[in-house]
Amino acid sequence: MFKYSLASLMLLFTCAKAQVNSNRLSVVPQKPAPGKPVELTYNVKLGPLNNGKQVKAAFYQFSDYKWHTDTAIMEVQGSNVKATFNLLPEASFAAVKFYQGSLRMPDSTDNNQEKGFAIAITNAKGKKLPGGALAQALFKLPGYSGGLPGYFEGNTAKMSSDSLALLLNEELKQKGSKPSKFVNQYLALQRAIKGTQFKAEAPALLSKLLEDPDLSEGGMEEIQRVMQFELKDEAGGLKLKKQILEKYPHGNYARLEAFQKTINTHSTKEEIIANSEVFLKNFPIAEWRKHPNNQDYVYYGVYRNLATSYFDTGNYDALLRLRPDWDFKTQNEVYRWNVMRAYMSKRVPLSQLQPLADSLYKGLLTKVNDGSYMVDFDSKNQAQENAYEQLKNRTGDQINIHYQAGDYKGALTYFDVFRPQEKYADADLNAIHVEMLDKTGQKQLMQPVLESSVKANAVTPAMFDRLKQLYIQQHGNLDGYDNYLASLKSADKMSELHASVKAHMLNQDVMPFAMEDMNGNIVRSTDWGDKIVVIDFWATWCRPCIMAFPGMQMLVDKYAKDPDVDFYFVGTMQFGDYKQKVKDFMKREGWRFKVLHDGVDKKTGEQNEVFATYAKLFNSSGIPRKIILKNGVLRYTTEGYGGSPSELVDEISYAIELLKADK
Predict the structure, then answer these.
(1) DSSP letter string over 415-432?
(2) Which residues contact 327 (CB under 8 A, 6 or more apart)?
(3) Which residue from 30, 76, 299, 575 lies 20 to 30 Å from 8 (Cα-Cα)?
(4) 637: helix, coil or strand?
């Protein structure tokens, strides 16, 4: 039996309340009930979070002896922010953590100064529910021991062994509550309570657990793991493993062993097909879904390998027969890995690929809300948003496949699948949209699409040319065209872009440099004087770099007659005869750029002598990387390419105009 001190008993009383004790958080209702909504109000001014940034809440609830996580962006109401979460029907304990940025790598957090924002959930009489005391104890354990990963910093929230023992004892007094129902958590608490004595006392604890006829297979697995790997009882562990396999011939252990045989990387396509079909016959996914556990990755792996083998051997009918068994995540991966791989490599005729893609895509539409990405994210919201993002990508793939196959009418129907915020967000798809409207005789719809694309700031050079042509047809000339174009742009989007540009402005001295141009002449940065010089670091192997070139060409043309602005395109981190490669590329593609070759670093032999000095400043060697120099000082930088030529033009143009105004 546990022995308690007076201090321990007083702590138990304190723990029993386990309710929010903070002047900056209020909970409505004050006594939340399972299955009901709970509203959280947080006073930002009283907490450590930045008042100017968006506040989010991570809401954790303990239900059916497991932690469940959800997140929400909090709604601003004066100095407060609010969010509502729905408690699960079996919820017995909850906690909340406020943060800014992303949950996995937050910019700042508030967990009530390491005390935690704990929320007790009770029955109608105000008493704890089964699981409540257990969750209260687990809450203060490290994440890897049953607590909440990342909720507390270090061990500052660690509870005394006496307190943990009191809470565990309180849980075991609940009607119907016993260790065999929560073996993993029970053993985690026993480790924390007994400390160094755990290994000595564990065999007796495990034996008692094994005597319970209600012990589940999962409980037996955890006992086997502790026995074999923690207590180093090899013989006992293997004996128990054999007992588990005999008692559950189609259970988790058996499934895992069969899976490991199925995914042999040295197997031929035919062997993978044969082994996978046997696996699915012996361990049908329908049976697993009746009592799902964390082995979803097993079916994901089996189906992915089997579908790829069917695809590579041309057995598309067999592949499609699997489709009803797949969740959204699996089906999305089968489409991405097989259909898009074949589309990009052009190894399967479009006449064969399109029907297969259409069938898979229909399945995605029906399963996008199935929550199958939950295992990869912290919350339902994040998982669902990722599913929508994946569906958006596959919708774009469908448009491209039908477009390349010449099925313009079919391709146009997919634009209706996009959510409003997605419909005009991709410049390349917008360009295809306009072209297909033209080809299908729907010219009256072209201008609305072009105008919506301008509002979304996702326009290609060809689209600007088409919009200009339409304007001339309607007005006879270009008078007022610039004002018309400006009126189409979203004020909110432009404001966001301008704020982002200002945030990336710098004022940092850099070392002068000299590089060779394509004609063998040396260009020195010291010769640029007070010019505003935009430098684009790129490489012939860098697809995002080249995708950004249409926008960069628009910028070069825009400032072609401006003596105070210049552009240079520096090829860097290339291989082989990079000078000839760059020359051939520019000639073949027709870009009208001033090109420089980065020097070769004498120490490393890599062609990144100048770029490496900038990479150190940014702690990143990613390209495309654009920098703007003025008077030999680094004034602006940005990495990557967002996919919109027009947005890139607006971004760099605004940075240039800011520097022009900065005398």
Answers:
(1) GGGS-TTTTT--HHHHHH
(2) 367, 370, 372
(3) 30
(4) strand
Nearest residue to 588 via CA among 549, 643, 558: 549
Beta bridge partners of 91: 63
Angle at the Cα of 156 (from 150 to 161), degrees rounded to 5?
105
Both tokens assigned to 170: 């309180």
* pLDDT attached to residue 7: 43
Tokens representing 541 are 């192997």
Instruction: Give the distance from CA 565 to its chain's centroid.
Output: 38
State which amino acid sits at residue 190. Answer: Q
* H helix runs in 490-634, sequence order: 491-503, 543-547, 549-558, 578-589, 609-618
Structure-token pair, residue 130 = 């089964």
**Number of residues assigned to the chain:** 663
This model's pTM is above 0.90? no
Nearest partner of 540 among 589, 585, 576, judged by Cα: 585
Amino acid at position 310, single letter: Y
Question: Quick one: which of 626, 628, 646 has its CA closest to 638?
Answer: 626
Are 114 and 151 a contacting pair, CB within 8 Å?
no
Q: Are the beta carbons of 607 and 511 closer than 8 angstroms?
A: no
Contact 483, 640 (CB under 8 A): no
Strand locations in 78-180 (E) = 80-86, 91-101, 106-110, 117-120
- Asked if residue 9 has pLDDT above 70, the reply is no
Give the type of residue at 132: G
> How far lies 439's CA from each of 409, 446, 463, in Å?
9, 11, 15
Phi, psi (deg, nearest 5) at residue 144: -70, -10
Give the strands of the sheet with 505-509, arranged side by side.
Answer: 505-509, 633-639, 625-630, 532-538, 565-571, 595-597, 514-517, 522-524
Cα separation, 276 vs 592, in Å, equals 54
The mean pLDDT value of the chain amounts to 92
- For residue 533, the model assigns a pLDDT of 96
Beta-bridged to residue 85, according to DSSP, are: 38
Amino acid at 592: R
Q: Is 539 helix (H, G, I), strand (E, B) or coil?
A: coil
Does the N-terminal peptide bond of residue 34 adopt cis geometry, omega within 30 degrees of 0?
no
Provide DSSP, 134-158.
Answer: HHHHHHTS-GGGTS-TTTSSTTTTP
Instruction: Please state, in angstroms and rounded to a whole number, the distance separating the CA atoms of residues 19 and 24.
Output: 13
Distance CA 532, CA 567 (A): 9
Q: How far is CA 117 from CA 22, 40, 54, 93, 577, in A?
A: 8, 11, 19, 11, 61
CA distance 567 to 608: 19
Q: How far apart are CA 414 and CA 67, in angstroms?
A: 39
12 pLDDT exceeds 80?
no
**H-type helices in 211-251, by residue range?**
217-225, 234-247
pLDDT over 70, % of the chain: 96
- CA-CA distance, 512 to 46, in Å (whole number)? 49
Element (H, E) at 436: helix 427-439
Specify the residue for token string 């059916």: 64
Query: Sorting pLDDT into bands at 50, 70 and 90, what band is 20?
Result: low
- The predicted-structure confidence for 541-588, as pLDDT tens digits, reads as follows 999 999 999 999 999 999 999 999 999 999 999 999 999 999 999 999
Task: Answer yes or no: are the C-beta atoms of 600 and 499 closer than 8 Å.
Answer: no
3-state SS, residue 52:
coil
Tens digits of per-residue pLDDT, 38-85?
999 999 989 999 777 899 999 999 999 999 999 999 999 988 999 999
pLDDT value, residue 157: 63
